[in-house]
Automatic annotation (TrEMBL):
Residues 1-32 form the signal peptide. Keywords: Signal. Residues 36-65 are annotated as: Disordered. It comes from Corynebacterium lowii. This is Secreted protein.
């Protein structure tokens, strides 16, 4: 059976959380799988929109202006919906039934990085992608998601988790040729961008 509607909600703030928990529904736009701005995500769920850069950053080989200056060149490689739990229901009655879930266990996501998470690193991400990450995000035990209406004959699935962004970083120095030069090895890691809920009804 074809999907009737797909709803997503990204919860980056208390206000957004309140909107979702009272049942607000946001229809997700159709997105082409080959779009480079779309990150990986579990099968059957809406692809995750990646953050878009607002500046180039100190890319190795590009021009610099202050000889000896040291920065971090960061690249957002991937974004995905990391599902922590889901609940499915089928309406075999003649009336409307609710699709909802109560979170039974607190779940957390933190920065993971192959080196230390420094202020320089987070500042470079903020400059390039205009986004400031929290060091930790969590879903609390007892939070209620939904309800969403299931009409007779409909099946619905509600999933919750986190939007995760995967980065690489390379330390660079402004060299004698006034170009950014890589220093040391490339590092990599992930950061939790938002709490996220997605609903599919078909």
């Amino acid at each position: 059976m074809a999907v009737k509607k797909i709803a997503t909600a990204a919860l980056a703030s208390v206000a957004a959380s309140a909107a979702l928990l009272t049942g607000s529904l946001v229809v997700a736009p159709a997105m082409a799988a080959e779009d480079s701005s779309v990150g990986r995500t579990p099968d059957n769920w809406t692809p995750v929109q990646k953050l878009r850069p607002v500046e180039r950053g100190p890319e190795p080989g590009s021009q610099c202006t202050k000889r000896g200056e040291v920065r971090e060149y960061v690249v957002l490689k991937d974004s995905h919906f990391d599902v922590e739990g889901q609940q499915s229901s089928y309406n075999d009655t003649d009336g409307v039934v609710p699709l909802q879930q109560t979170i039974k266990e607190t779940k957390k996501k933190k920065w993971t990085w192959s080196a230390s998470v420094t202020v320089k690193l987070t500042d470079e991400i903020k400059k390039k992608y205009d986004w400031e990450y929290n060091r930790e995000m969590f879903w609390s035990m007892g939070q209620n998601l939904g309800p969403y209406d299931l009409m007779p004959g409909e099946k619905g699935t509600i999933a919750w988790g986190f939007i995760m962004d995967d980065y690489t970083s390379q330390r660079v120095r402004c060299g004698a040729s006034m170009k950014w030069e890589p220093v040391g090895r490339q590092n990599y890691g992930s950061a939790p961008r938002e709490r996220h809920v997605e609903v599919v009804i078909n």
